[in-house]
Specification:
Elements lengths: L6 H14 L6 H28 L3 H14 L4 H27 L2 E8 L2 E9 L4 E2 L5 E2 L1 E8 L3 E8 L10 E7 L2 E8 L7 E5 L2 H10 L3 E6 L5 E6 L14
Antiparallel strand pairs: 1-2, 2-5, 3-4, 5-6, 6-9, 7-8, 7-10, 8-9, 10-11
Helix pairs in contact: 2-3, 2-4, 3-4
Protein name: Lipoprotein
């Protein structure tokens, strides 16, 4: 039991009084400390961005930059990386687009006797109505056959080309249009139409982003199939180059 007036009681009372009389923290000091802490965190994020940017890992650089700009948009670090973040975002977008368009192409190698047939095929980016009924896929194929040589042709899944006696096709490469000859072989194996100037068509496919071909159909009128050819890998068809 602590008696009144004892030294211990006096000390406790003094401690309580002094503790209750400490001044409140300065708001400006608190804000400054918080701002400094935020800048340190932002700079740590910026360093991660810098590492990925220097390594040309554009997707990761963009991701680190996205987080930094979202969480600390007013920081010095955010201001410092802003221009490079835009570069990384653009490069990442270009890489994703290149991967997407490359994946649109299908390459096949098939044995023909002791040799091989090579082909590169791509579907039109939108289905096309070719029989007066339902829109269906249209394919563009480049083929290198060991006996028949090189050819380029369109293949339909329904309807038919109105080109058995030959026809004129409008071929547009990135909106630059030219006329090319087409021919429908008399065969039931496939609904196919050759594009006679295969060398020029291949050259256009290598250079263009979008290749569009307008062709006549038996259902009446003309149709247009557009192909996103920008992801073509010419090295997969060495005989064409």
């Amino acid at each position: 039991m602590v008696r009144a007036g004892s030294p211990l009681l006096v000390a406790l009372v003094c401690a309580m009084v002094l503790g209750g009389c400490e001044p409140a923290p300065d708001p400006e000091v608190v804000r400054a400390e918080q701002a400094a802490a935020a800048e340190r965190k932002a700079e740590a994020m910026a360093q991660q961005f810098d590492e990925q940017f220097a390594a040309e890992n554009w997707d990761l650089a963009k991701a680190h930059g996205d987080v930094l700009l979202a969480e600390y948009p007013d920081s010095r670090a955010a201001e410092r990386i802003k221009a490079q973040h835009e570069q990384a975002a653009e490069k990442a977008r270009a890489i994703r687009e290149a991967r997407r368009t490359a994946a649109l192409w299908a390459y096949q190698t098939q044995p023909v006797g002791k040799k091989q047939q090579l082909s590169a095929a791509i579907y039109a980016r939108e289905n096309v109505e070719t029989d007066g009924k339902v829109a269906r896929p249209v394919r563009l194929i480049f083929r290198d056959h060991p006996e028949w040589g090189r050819s380029s042709y369109l293949v339909l899944e329904a309807g038919d080309f109105d080109c058995y006696r030959g026809c004129k096709l409008k071929v547009s490469a990135d909106d630059v249009t030219r006329t090319m000859a087409g021919s429908r072989p008399d065969t039931d194996e496939a609904i196919a139409m050759f594009i006679e100037d295969e060398k020029t068509l291949w050259k256009l496919a290598k250079q263009a982003g979008v290749l569009s071909i307008e062709f006549p159909v038996k259902a009446g009128g003309k149709r247009t199939a557009s192909f996103e050819v920008g992801g073509l890998d010419p090295e997969r068809m060495p005989g064409w180059n």
